[in-house]
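Bench notes, bay 3.
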Amino acid sequence: MEIRRPASRWAGGPALRRVAVVASTLVALTACSQPGDVAAPTDAPAEHSAPELAHVHGLGVDPADGDLYAASHFGVFRIPADGEPEQIADRSQDTMGFTIIGPDHFLGSGHPDPAETDQPPHLGLIESTDAGQTWRPLSLAGEADFHALEAAHDQVYGYDSQTRQIMVSQDKTTWDRRAQLALADFAVSPDDPDTLLATTQEGPARSADGGRTFSPIAGAPLLVLLDWPATDRLVGAAPDGTVHTSTDGGAGWTSQGQVPGQPEAITTHGTNEVYVATDSGIYRSTDIGRTFSLLQPLT
């Protein structure tokens, strides 16, 4: 893929152990600028050319129809069970943070389509209630660039790449700024709104106070991506594509299968499905990550 690859999500953190192992993965995890830069995607496909799905930032399954959606550097795409990916609304919005919170109900963040010159470079928190056909700003337009978003316990949790802070909102409008740290991804416990796990350069870290402070989890594998769909099902992806699962909230981990390439996004669906996007394709598992098959190659 010939696209911008600025410094990683973990940039700005201390030089920590195993950094060399994850350096290439960090570069692949973000297509966005660092704080202070103007970051509308300047390398969008040429005018009149067919948009291609590449550099996926987020994945989610829409409960309205069961379809998989991919948020990417070149817009949000629907991934049908058969056929080619469909770019939603012909919009090449660089959608960074992305989560599906209900039928046809998406939250996102990132940078506008280059054609939308009236938009700020950082979209803040945006919302779609028609499966990505249209988006409306909710808060922090021109300020925040969320690289990770989670909706749980009637709250929205985000990681703002501009300030490198965990932020939490109960109304999608006003925000409480919490810990400042270098992370690649985070997940919220399905049982406790105050329990968060984050992937850092030193390995997974846990917060028991709603993201205000974090402490490392001893013995956990180095991970870059997380999804926590159920009490007894926490799924993570390592820099080398190995998928790990935990049944006890991250205290203990079991290695499962491996996907080729550098992991860029992860989601789960139902009790057994795991989807992982890498720099080369989107892969699907129907056995909680033990084996994977290629669902969609990426350019």
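Next record in the batch:
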Amino acid sequence: MKNTDKLIDIYRDKLDLQIAHFELIEHEDAMVAPVYKILKESGEQFILKICTNRKHYLREQIFLNYFFGQILVPKIIDFIDPENNIPGAILMEYINGSVMKITDFNATIAHQSGVILAKIHNNRTNGYGELIESSKLDSNPVQSFTLKFEEGLGECIGHLPNQLIEQVKSYFYQNINLLSLVDGPCIVHYDFRPGNIIVQNNKVLAIIDWSSSRSSFAEEDFCSFEHVEWLIDSNTKKEFLEGYASVRPIPNYSKVMPLLRISKAITSIGFIIKQGIFNNNRNRWYQLNLKFLKAFF
């Protein structure tokens, strides 16, 4: 707590928010970065996102700036670059809405979300990989996709049964050639789900959390919905796809989706293990992905 208080004091000074009130935002979908709601004496409200990972900070800043005015994203007001032991932080406008819950994901919201996702994917790129390191983009999606999978798999070794690890690895490399059919390269959000959509009065107000975004293929963003949301409530799938199709053709993702879901399950479990924090939300997400892998194999 003391270290957190010291950081907040630093951000207060650097952002000229000495007498503002900082309130930590907690919700069931929170996974990584601390996010604060800031209230100034004038009544103005802002959001401060603290990015403990430098790449997360760079991605967040790049994509919020790039998409502002194109799609619904918060406007950056100010920022603090990471230095020494001080994490980077982004001060952005406060969106007067709430984080969408799966129960909010009705036909109207689904259609709007599909339209926005299609607009994101319409931004084509010159290769696959990190846009914060654009000189290292690859013309083939296999390398960047495999690197992320292997990183997650490495974190799982010693935690998941060896037999399951081998089954996952075998399936992955037997089917990696399916990536030759994907729709890319383009910008992907990579974590496009209800927990990263702000809504109010049956309307999408903003897409948040761009810290995982990159240049990849459109099918990756469909994986989040196929992996969780549509399995819980499939009634909105038709509306979502119709919204997407009103902007651009829907990628034919059915063949590659099992590979994407396996990779997502492994990278998600690996991330949670690496973070070493098993709160209620992370434990639920860990168990959901483990259950999927055991059922698949």
